[in-house]
Amino acid sequence: MKLRTLTLGLLSASALAFAAHAESITIATVNNGDMVRMQKLTEDFTKANPDIQLNWVTLEENVLRERVTTDIATKGGQYDVMTIGTYEVPIWAKQSWLLPLDKLGDDYDAKDIIPAIAGGLSVDGKLYAAPFYGESSFVMYRKDLMEKAGLKMPDAPTWDFIKQAADKMTDRANGVNGVCLRGKAGWGENMAFLTAMSNSFGARWFDENWKPQFDQPEWKKTLQFYVDLMKADGPEGASSNGFNENLALFQQGKCGMWIDATVAASFVSDPKASQVADKVGYALAPDNGLGKRGNWLWAWSLAIPAGTKKADAAEKFVSWATSKHYAELVASKEGWANVPPGTRSSLYANAEYQKAAPFAKMTLDSINAADPTHPTVKPVPYVGVQFVAIPEFQGLGTTVGQLFSAALAGQSSVDDALKQAQDAATAAMTEGGYIK
């Protein structure tokens, strides 16, 4: 008995000594379903890396953005791994705030990352964040209403076709709107949609010398087309509708078409949540024949701040969480439909995933149609498809979003909204030192 007690005591002492030598890393992440699932599955990581302990700071998206931005800008050093978006990566990498991810392991297969996603997370050919999941945007439409209208949705429609179909599908007497699009103000709400849309009309936020371009005819065509389309075929109160509001409308059978995030496909095709689950088709975001489609590109990704003193341990975790192995782990526990989408080419070549996600091919095609390094028809000095990767964009994008939302609501004209957007952008770029 004494010997057993002594042995247990030695083991306990050994365990305590090991724990004292274990390296602890702190991970800041967003409180969405995929990240919550990741936390539940981390025993797989700690078994393989018993010398690394994980501490989690899980926050709502807006709070997360504020905390990690403050921490990295002030070199606070609170976090060893940060969950950030495609908007932050090129800005922070150029400020030398992030470490390049060049030690992800021999079996990581970085070349398997979808090129469009990798391009948005790279600077000068170096990867500065590893994508956890990615998305683009595309057209979701009611196949039954399209057939009733006597039309067939092309895989790659034009905006003219969208307008034609919306006119024919609108049936206000039965509560059906031909098209539902974002109208709620915000750089990540209506301006995500409108900036991506404007690319396909040949518009751009700034020319090569950072001069704002809202006074150019391409923006007039974009905003006028959008406002006219929504007035004729959109839902009432559209200027208050964002992603969630339009999702609810579509699931209730009140939208003939909806152009929005590819991740919405699993929601509109879920028979438990959607009244039209068996009637949904998918197509690429529209174009105008100018070589750019009206779709965006986004990824939630894991990055390592330059100030961490635990870079090796942090990179091991980033490698695990964004690996092929992790995808297989999720599939074994939760099913292929719940694997984080939009990051690896191999997932879209997987027959089991294709079977579980009938929208998989169109999602991949949509992601591949976006090029964050060449987002516009005419040359620009910035990267980003539905945003401009400069620090000033968050505030300026929301200001312009408010002006365009007001035009949609009929509170101002398209011309007035564009003039005010030009003035606001000129003031912001002058204050930021981009133009004199």
UniProtKB/TrEMBL annotation:
Keywords: Periplasm, Signal. Residues 1-19 form the signal peptide. Gene3D superfamilies: Periplasmic binding protein-like II. InterPro entries: Bact_solute-bd_prot1 (IPR050490), SBP (IPR006059). It comes from Mesorhizobium huakuii. It holds the Pfam family SBP_bac_1. It comes from the Bacteria. It is found in: Periplasm. This is Sugar ABC transporter substrate-binding protein. The keyword Signal applies. The keyword Signal applies. Belongs to the bacterial solute-binding protein 1 family. PANTHER family: ARABINOSE-BINDING PROTEIN-RELATED (PTHR43649), DIACETYLCHITOBIOSE BINDING PROTEIN DASA (PTHR43649:SF12).
